[in-house]
UniProtKB/TrEMBL annotation:
Pfam families hit by this protein: ABC_tran, BCA_ABC_TP_C
Species this chain originates from: Allomesorhizobium camelthorni
GO molecular function list: ATP binding; ATP hydrolysis activity
InterPro entries from the UniProt entry: AAA+_ATPase (IPR003593), ABC_AA/LPS_Transport (IPR051120), ABC_transporter-like_ATP-bd (IPR003439), BCA_ABC_TP_C (IPR032823), P-loop_NTPase (IPR027417)
GO cellular component, one term: plasma membrane
Lineage: Bacteria, Pseudomonadati, Pseudomonadota, Alphaproteobacteria, Hyphomicrobiales
Signal peptide boundaries: none
PANTHER family xref list: ABC TRANSPORTER ATP-BINDING PROTEIN, CONSERVED COMPONENT OF ABC TRANSPORTER FOR NATURAL AMINO ACIDS-RELATED
Protein name: ABC transporter ATP-binding protein
Length: 249
């Protein structure tokens, strides 16, 4: 089997007496969507932040592309190709959608000797940025300030920005949140194709999306992975049904 792109080994994080991450190990393999599901407060977001670098674990390892990245900060992990799109947006609201993506393209290219050229006329920035907006279905809204985009459009923009950074893996925390049924369907189709570009660790409450997309699912309950498997394996797992799926209407 191909080497995992991302490996988490025995990660632990407590907040006081609460074990938010209680010995979590999981892998993200090339080409896969690995969904992380679990009830509210199970520790999904805390885990994602430890992988991205925003929260320091008490112990355990995060290995990305064969390198232990535990000592690196958020920006250094992003530069290594850990792409993120979070519930909390990092867009520049007054800038157009295009300009927001251009900033990402620029940070990837490095910005030497750029200041002599008017940025919006710099085709080495506008063309790749436009291509990303086209891929995420936002090209027609390129000149609209991020602040005026709808919630769903901002999600598309965040993904365009993540793509512009040339990710080797994606961490997506509830990308479907706040999307209408139409938006969820469109985003599901988009993520379906994206896995071949970079594998995705997907935290998501929308079970239709999870069951449609996931190659594997890990179920987190009280900071522990109680099951990992294919959709069918996880749906048929008695402990999962009891702890999580069974309690849903
Ligand atoms: N900074 C913090 N200080 C103290 N407790 C925290 C902190 N961050 C998270 N927690 C607690 O850790 C547990 C896990 O929270 P987390 O947000 O990771 O869960 P989650 O699975 O992402 O939940 P949800 O599905 O509701 O987003 C919760 O009990 C939460 O209250």
């Amino acid at each position: 089997m191909a080497e995992p792109v991302l490996s988490i080994r025995d990660l632990r994080k407590s907040f006081g007496a609460l074990k938010a991450t209680d010995g979590v190990s999981l892998d993200l393999r090339p080409g896969e969507i690995h969904a992380l599901i679990g009830p509210n407060g199970a520790g999904k977001t805390t885990l994602i932040h430890q992988i991205a670098g925003g929260i320091t674990p008490d112990s355990g390892e995060v290995v990305f592309l064969g390198e232990d990245i535990g000592a690196l900060g958020v920006a250094a992990r992003a530069r290594r190709g850990l792409g993120r799109s979070f519930q909390i947006s990092s867009l520049a609201p007054e800038f157009s959608a295009l300009r927001n993506v251009m900033l990402a393209v620029q940070s990837r290219q490095g910005s030497s000797f750029r200041f002599f050229r008017p940025v919006m006329k710099d085709r080495s920035l506008t063309e790749p940025a436009m291509a990303m907006l086209e891929r995420t279905g936002l090209a027609a809204r390129a000149n609209v300030p991020a602040a005026e985009l709808s919630h769903g459009e901002r999600r598309q923009l965040e993904i365009a920005i993540a793509l512009a950074l040339g990710p080797r893996a994606f961490l997506l925390d509830e990308p479907m949140a706040g999307m209408g049924p139409e938006g969820s369907r469109a985003l599901t189709a988009f993520l379906d194709g994206l896995r071949h570009e970079a594998p995705i660790l997907l935290v998501e409450h929308d079970m239709d999306a999870v069951f449609a997309l996931a190659d594997r699912i890990s179920v987190l309950v009280y900071g522990r992975v109680i099951a990992t498997g294919t959709v069918d394996e996880v749906r048929g797992d008695a402990e999962v049904r009891r702890a999580y799926l069974g309690e849903r209407p």
